[in-house]
Amino acid sequence: MVSPSMYATQSPVTDPGDMAWWLAGLPADLDGLRRVARDLVIHYRADDPVGHGIPAERLAEIDTRYAGAMLHRLHELAAQPLTTARQPAQRLVGCCRDFTILFLTLARYQGIPARARVGFATYFVPGFNVDHEIAEVWDATERRWRLVDAELSDDHVDPTNGAALDGLDIPRDRFLTGGTAWLACRDGQADPARFVVDPGLDIPSTRSWPQLRNNLIHDLAVLNKVEPLLWDAWGFIERDDLSAAEEQLLDDVAVATAAGDAGVAHARVLYSAHAELRMPPVVVSYDPLGGPSRQVRHAI
């Protein structure tokens, strides 16, 4: 069994670096930290940054990989305490991954065990499981991991059932981790076609089995404290011609990542043992804004 304390320290991605001084004096409670993180990012699609007066060239901020660089950019935009409310143009242009990374940075700075999870949210578009990344935080009092969505507004209503959602404790049936989604589709309990980046996005690699495979492997990576951009691709993510043995390996990954802390140790072994699962030093990074893909060398 892997101790939750493994996730209480920063990763190369969440490390604030020389901006750590800016994190002093932040709230110590999860709700306070979530509110701070939520006010630091404007979603590159859902929040219409250009409509809020943000120049189109700033949309490239979506590729900011490291929390230290995010904090530097935020300080350039507004050198005020992180607890001070920001206007939309003072926020980093990002996505669900960036809300989550900054939340992890804040939580880990406080010594709170927190990790990312990559999977699918059922609480955005009725009938679809939408690509999403949120946090998982160790609740020491209740001795369990709770799902925390740092992006979600306080008044968000689940369109599927009309119920309000608590962003500090997302129900497990409303967010499916990559492994849980993979197993549900492999077992015939869910329709792969309903798992998408966006129902209106007609790109085969962002739908069904390719997206399920992507999120499965990304979820394995973040459980190993490797937090890629959501459009980074490597190994099995880039391949559709998997053998039966390779498909079985992905099934094993799904079982391990879906098993909570009981499976984390096995997930770490699988990640270390198989090159097609590990994030290599150079990845293909696709452009969510529609430009060409790039070969990117990272420091993760």
Model description:
The structure is a single chain. The protein has 300 residues and is an alpha+beta fold. The protein is 29% helix and 15% strand. It has seven helices and ten strands. Helix 1 (30-38) packs across helix 3 (96-109).
For the terminal residues, how far apart are their CA atoms?
24 Å
**What count of structural domains?**
1
Strand content: 15-25%
How confident is the prediction overall: mean pLDDT? 97
Based on CA atoms alone, the radius of gyration comes out at: 18 Å
- Unreliable stretches (pLDDT < 50, length at least 5) are none
Q: Total strand count, please?
A: 10
- What does the overall shape look like? globular
- Amount of helix: 25-40%
Most strands sheet:
5 strands, mixed
| Structural class by secondary-structure content | alpha+beta
Number of helices: 7
- Topology as a string of helices (H) and strands (E): HEHEHEEEEHEHEHHEE
Fold blueprint:
Blueprint: H1 30-38, E1 41-43, H2 67-77, E2 92-94, H3 96-109, E3 114-121, E4 129-139, E5 144-148, E6 175-177, H4 178-186, E7 195-196, H5 208-223, E8 232-233, H6 244-257, H7 261-273, E9 282-285, E10 294-297
Parallel strand pairs: 1-2, 4-7
Antiparallel strand pairs: 3-4, 3-6, 4-5, 8-9, 9-10
Helix pairs in contact: 1-3, 4-5, 4-6, 5-6, 6-7
Structure summarized in a few sentences:
With 300 residues, the chain is α+β, with helices and mostly antiparallel strands. The protein has one domain (4-297).
Main traits of this protein?
alpha+beta
